[in-house]
Amino acid sequence: MINAVVRGMIPSRPRQRVKRFMKLHGYLITLLMITTPIAGVASDRNIEEIIAARLELMKPVAHAKWVTGRAIEDTDREKVVIEQAVISGLQYGITTDSTTTFFEAQIEAAKAIQRYWFNIWKNDPPTGLAPNLTETIRPQLLELGDQILSQLGTANRSLTLARFQAATQMEGLSLAHQQALFQALQGIEQYPSRWEQIQESRILRVGTTLDYAPFSYLSESGEREGLDIILATQLAEFLGARLVWVRTSWPTLMKDFRSGAFDVGMSGISIIPSRAREGFFTRSYHEGGKTPITHCNLKNRFASLDAIDRPGVRGIVNPGGTNEQYVTGALKAATIVRPPDNETIFKALRAGKADLMITDAIEVLVMAQRYDDLCPSMPGSLLTQQDKGWLLPKDSALLTRVEQFLGPLIESGELDRLKALAIERAAQIAH
Fold first, then answer.
1. What is the pLDDT of residues 36-56, one digit of tens each?
2. Is the CATH number 1.20.59.10 carried by domain 2-190?
3. What is the spatial distance between Cα 294 and Cα 383, in angstroms, rounded to a whole number?
């Protein structure tokens, strides 16, 4: 049953099926936020053992459904599971068709096991407390699903049907379902390049930190805001793709990038050699650099780096990015305060937990407008020169297409207009 529904919703290589997916995807979450990339999911078990471990959870799943009166069949939930698997599979370059086929087979096998136990329990009901499906079982299913996905793209092609059957032999699982799972596993394919992946899947995954105004941040109501949020939406439309947000952070930005967690990094990312060695940057869409912001009553005290780098001065810095890199190298005598994230840093500064912060001039501009008690201490002066761009994998075809979008925005002056609006909007947001 799931086949007929999902096959019309999940994109595939043939163009007609891509078009059908784009028409019907409104059921699904158009802008799905992946908050935790699954990079680094590791297991010392072979993929057939992980698949078996997931299927073995179907008896407790059936128990929970039996006790609560829930039906085995849940097509809406199945659609969501497959959609999430498709998106997660893109991290490993796995084609949407082969991910869909595998997870369809896995779902059918899972339901077969559940039906087996339901039939037994008609005459001999289960005893004991049923496990909690939402709080206990589902987290295990998600973890095992992530482990499966992480191995699908590299699964040993020497895996034999006999070995797979031996690993997955259990009550309720028929030979036919084992064979279907094995065939789906053997049929896993990967896209040859990131650009072809975006073209064929019609999905664009954008990584953003959501903690850096005016580029990307959360509004008071929790909505995504900022220049890069607007531009990412427009870029996805330009590429004919559905936008999927991937939450990253400054400490994990490059790790997530290397893992394939997103296709384009857009969050006011500074163009620096270490990052440029690992990926491609677009042309600069913002020119700037570092400058200090402090309490307005202290602005004359910190008019130079020499005045800042003195014993007793407390400089606060967000972890993981170029701000921390600069401050760590520049401040030798001053005390460096490192909060756990970049979202509460200005609250901490205003509360007197630090004397100043050194950050990008554009963020200083926003925060000095947002808060009456914060002022730049070196207005018009920069301690560094750092431009910003979008971070992409080393795929020339993808870079070319993205530049075809970005170039006209820069040359027409439209980017400057959008940037000015983003600064104005960010300055109005109170936290």
1. 555 445 568 899 999 999 999
2. yes
3. 15
Tokens representing residue 202 in the block: 């019609």
Strand partners, 389: 269
Alpha-helical segments (H) within 69-193: 75-89, 96-121, 138-152, 161-168, 175-186
> So what's the pLDDT on residue 9?
36
Which residues fall within 8 angstroms of residue 342, CB to CB, at 6 or more apart?
209, 211, 212, 250, 318, 319, 321
Domain locations along the chain? 2-190, 195-287+386-426, 290-376
- Cα–Cα nearest to 293, from 270, 261, 323, 252: 323
Mean pLDDT, residues 376-385: 96
371/42 Cα distance (integer angstroms): 45
Q: Select from 3.10.180.10, 3.20.20.20, 3.40.190.10, 3.30.200.20 the CATH code of 290-376.
A: 3.40.190.10
CA distances 42 to 38, 57, 147, 159, 256, Å, are: 10, 19, 6, 19, 15
Q: What's the helix, strand, coil split of the chain in %, to 5?
A: 50, 15, 35
Whole-number Å distance between alpha carbons of 303 and 349: 18
Domains 195-287+386-426 and 290-376 share a fold: yes
Give me 56's structure tokens.
């073995």
For the segment(s) 195-287+386-426, the CATH number from 3.40.50.2300, 3.40.50.300, 3.40.50.12280, 3.40.190.10 is 3.40.190.10
Name the one residue in this structure whose structure tokens are 């829930």: 70
Token reading at 304: 């130079």
Q: Is 134 exposed, middle or buried (0-12, 13-18, 19+ CB in 10 A)?
A: exposed
pLDDT at 89 over 50: yes
Beta carbons within 8 Å of 288's beta carbon, 6+ residues apart:
360, 361, 362, 382, 385, 386, 387, 388
What is the DSSP code string of 72-107? Answer: S--HHHHHHHHHHHHHHHGGGTB-HHHHHHHHHHHH
Is the Cα dihedral 30, 31, 33, 37 positive or negative?
positive
